[in-house]
Amino acid sequence: MLLQLNIQNFAIVRSLDIDWQSGMTTITGETGAGKSIAIDALGLCLGDRATTNVVRPNCKKADLAATFEIKKNKMARAWLKQHELVSEQANECILRRVISVEGRSKSFINGSQVPLVQLKEIGQLLINIHGQHDHQLIVKANQQCRLLDNYANHAPLLSAVKHYAQQWNKLNKELEMLHQSKQQREAEQQLIQYQVTELDEFSLQPDEFATLEKDYKRHSNAQDLLDSTLSTLQSLSENDNFNILDSLRECSENINSIARVDNQLSNVATILSDTLIQLDEANNDLTHYYQQLELDPQSYAIIEERYSTAVQLAKKHQISPENLVNFHNELKQQLASISSDETRINTIIEELEQTKLHYNESAEVLSTSRQKSAKKLSKLISKSMQELNMPHGQFVIDVGNNKKQDDSKDVINTNGIDAISFQVSINPGQALEAMHKVASGGELSRISLAMQVILADKVITPTLIFDEVDVGISGPTAAMVGKKLKQLSKNTQVICVTHLPQVACKGHQQLFVSKLTDGELTETQVSELNESNRVKEIARLLAGDKISQHSLANAQELLAS
């Protein structure tokens, strides 16, 4: 419940602290005194949009803070814990909003700065504000459906229906996308199939191109290789007149012989011996290479053709020849993916049928429950309307089917298959019609209030605020409205801004709003009325500015009732 509201430099409020009680609190005051200012300030604490004119003139910022008790509010505690904005022992939640004169604002929850959207999220779990025109919302189909479902505790059934509806819509979108791209996929499939077939026929193996390139270079330069190898062998060993190996062997033998005389030549002798051994090995390897090297025009033609084809295919696909095998594999994967899209279409069609079956089953269960609950709620609201000075009032909740008979397209709605319509009859002999066609603003307000009282035990927020919802009501009806609001306050904290004495007298706490001015600046103040002042205020509401003994007696009688 709401415990305290602190307002600093907001509109015509300089400084204001309001302590709230449980039960029912009524707020009264003269016209134009600013009875709704506290509600407006509270709305900003709950995340309403701020404008620059909310800051009091000649001030830099407005500072607003609302303190709520959350000891018994499990949903609010869970939300705060999830966002790490409350300790385990904390039983209070403080929402704060600071708005600069330039229109910028900062939001805080329990001292931590948060995005504005989080104020809105937690606010929905703490308080529910009904403005002067909010009763007009009940003529909207979605609001009517929500009210019936709240009364019947349909959250689990709605969750199942919503799950299958969302799944069906998701599958439908995927199917539509696949159908839309089908022609494009077919053209793409033909191209890729041609490319894959071409690469399949060529059948280049992993690392084959590197081998091809090496063989191609060797065969294309085979004559140069033969000539150079033979020339080198001649110089090394095969020239009878002079060759390097014979000359080096002679040098090595000479140095080895004199090294035995002078050991300073031992290192030179060793180097020459090692060099002779290495050069002899090189000569043997080169001889072997020369013997294996041969000119084979037929092999060369095969290698040249395959190498050239690989280069041409790589150029055609704008890749390097080394990546041709990987590219081939990627194309085969794309082809398989396109083929799987066609398979997916058939699978989706089957899944849609199954999902639709589950949806219809869940929606039928929900619809049956709605029809039963609609009959019960219709009787309760009809009785409450009659108590609120509509003696012949009849209220019927019609649960129809939201699918048009001439519409062959499936209707999958997250709220189920029902079209909920609130129908009323106010006068004897009047046929039932849609509520917005026959009910006046005052009647709509009373019907809305009747619903709030009936649904009080379903309300998830511990605080309800009514901002002059009794506009257009007077006399015996006003007395019954006050009685209904007090009845509502047994289950939840009720705060009501009112101009009716019959409503104001029912509050457990009454606040009076006054406006003071020195000719230059205006200031709104709020004070809690004691018993004697409350009698005077009720008398003022009854008689106007001229309070008589008769009006005072009537006020005392109202407060005692």
From TrEMBL:
<keyword id="KW-0067">ATP-binding</keyword>
<dbReference type="InterPro" id="IPR027417">
    <property type="entry name" value="P-loop_NTPase"/>
</dbReference>
<dbReference type="GO" id="GO:0006281">
    <property type="term" value="P:DNA repair"/>
</dbReference>
<dbReference type="Pfam" id="PF02463">
    <property type="entry name" value="SMC_N"/>
</dbReference>
<dbReference type="InterPro" id="IPR004604">
    <property type="entry name" value="DNA_recomb/repair_RecN"/>
</dbReference>
<keyword id="KW-0227">DNA damage</keyword>
<dbReference type="GO" id="GO:0043590">
    <property type="term" value="C:bacterial nucleoid"/>
</dbReference>
<dbReference type="GO" id="GO:0009432">
    <property type="term" value="P:SOS response"/>
</dbReference>
<comment type="function">
    <text>May be involved in recombinational repair of damaged DNA.</text>
</comment>
<dbReference type="GO" id="GO:0005524">
    <property type="term" value="F:ATP binding"/>
</dbReference>
<dbReference type="GO" id="GO:0006310">
    <property type="term" value="P:DNA recombination"/>
</dbReference>
<keyword id="KW-0234">DNA repair</keyword>
<comment type="similarity">
    <text>Belongs to the RecN family.</text>
</comment>
<protein>
    <recommendedName>
        <fullName>DNA repair protein RecN</fullName>
    </recommendedName>
</protein>
<dbReference type="InterPro" id="IPR003395">
    <property type="entry name" value="RecF/RecN/SMC_N"/>
</dbReference>
<feature type="domain" description="RecF/RecN/SMC N-terminal">
    <location>
        <begin position="2"/>
        <end position="516"/>
    </location>
</feature>
<keyword id="KW-0547">Nucleotide-binding</keyword>
